[in-house]
């Protein structure tokens, strides 16, 4: 029995789409639309949630418009796609007056206190299958979304790409067009702010250590 045909890479599909293969685009969309939509929705936050569909659709329209000019240049298709989505979301935030650069100087620059958030909590004294734990996790999840909504967009983008979408620091730096150390610093600030914001949901002992992936995935 012959081995199954391997799935074509994103680059191969994009090149096929540039050559007129509409089904190649459908496969790219199927692979990445869920992650892109989630990234755009959470980057825009509650105040601009109504623009999520517009930003998401416009990002894919930009992929379509760029198909004949696109060529692999070191970054993956996924990284390039998130770059387009990030630019479009930031444009939307700026037009709404919500975007403030994390690097803008201020009279009292924020400095993180304590260690960055490195562990996810366990429910205090709750049975593994108990109703109390379910209530705890629902409350913790909502609190995390609220805390994410309070981050500056620049820090939020780094956190989401790293911890939700699995991009390494090198990949997300490329996607956001940042220097590696700048991306690393923004991730540290985001994690420190989230740790402070989560408060009682982050006891000293927890489960599921969060790792920072610096290299290419």
Structure notes:
The longest helix is centred in the first third of the chain and has 23 residues, at 22-44. The chain starts with 9 loop residues before the first helix and ends in an 8-residue tail after the last strand. The protein has two domains: 10-96, Rna Polymerase Sigma Factor, Chain: A (Orthogonal Bundle); 119-209, Arc Repressor Mutant, subunit A (Orthogonal Bundle), CATH 1.10.10.10. The protein has a two-stranded antiparallel ribbon with strand order 1-2. The chain has 217 residues and is mainly α. Helix 1 (10-18) crosses helix 2 (22-44) and helix 4 packs across helix 7. The chain is built from eight helices and two strands; from the N terminus they run ααααβααααβ. 29% of the residues are buried.
Write a brief caption for the model.
The chain has eight helices and two strands. With 217 residues, the chain is mainly α.
Provide the descriptors you would attach to this structure in a database record.
Rna Polymerase Sigma Factor, Chain: A; mainly alpha; two-stranded antiparallel sheet; Arc Repressor Mutant, subunit A; about 220 residues
CATH C-level class of the largest domain: Mainly Alpha
| Whole-number mean pLDDT | 76
Number of strands: 2
Strand content: under 5%
Distance between the termini: 32 Å
Q: Which superfamily, in CATH terms, is the homologous superfamily of the largest domain? A: Winged helix-like DNA-binding domain superfamily/Winged helix DNA-binding domain
Reconstruct the topology from this structure.
Blueprint: H1 10-18, H2 22-44, H3 52-65, H4 77-96, E1 119-121, H5 131-149, H6 153-164, H7 169-175, H8 180-198, E2 206-209
Antiparallel strand pairs: 1-2
Helix pairs in contact: 1-2, 2-3, 2-4, 2-6, 3-4, 4-7, 5-8, 6-8, 7-8
């Amino acid at each position: 029995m012959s081995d199954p045909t391997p799935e074509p890479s994103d680059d191969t599909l994009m090149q096929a789409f540039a050559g007129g293969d509409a089904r190649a685009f459908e496969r790219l969309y199927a692979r990445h639309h869920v992650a892109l939509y989630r990234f755009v929705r959470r980057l825009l936050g509650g105040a601009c949630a109504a623009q999520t569909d517009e930003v998401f659709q416009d990002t894919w329209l930009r992929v379509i418009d760029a198909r004949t000019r696109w060529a692999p240049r070191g970054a993956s298709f996924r990284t390039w796609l998130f770059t387009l989505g990030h630019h479009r979301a930031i444009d939307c935030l700026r037009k709404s007056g919500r975007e403030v650069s994390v690097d803008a100087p201020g009279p009292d620059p924020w400095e993180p206190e304590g260690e960055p958030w490195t562990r996810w909590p366990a429910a205090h004294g709750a049975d593994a299958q108990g109703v109390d734990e379910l209530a705890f996790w629902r409350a913790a999840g909502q609190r995390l979304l609220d805390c994410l909504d309070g981050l500056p967009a620049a820090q939020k983008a780094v956190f989401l790409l790293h911890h939700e979408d699995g991009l390494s620091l090198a990949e997300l730096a490329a996607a956001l067009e940042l220097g590696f150390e700048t991306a690393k610093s923004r991730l540290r600030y985001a994690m420190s702010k989230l740790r402070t914001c989560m408060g009682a949901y982050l006891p000293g002992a927890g489960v599921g250590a969060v790792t920072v992936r610096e290299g290419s995935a």
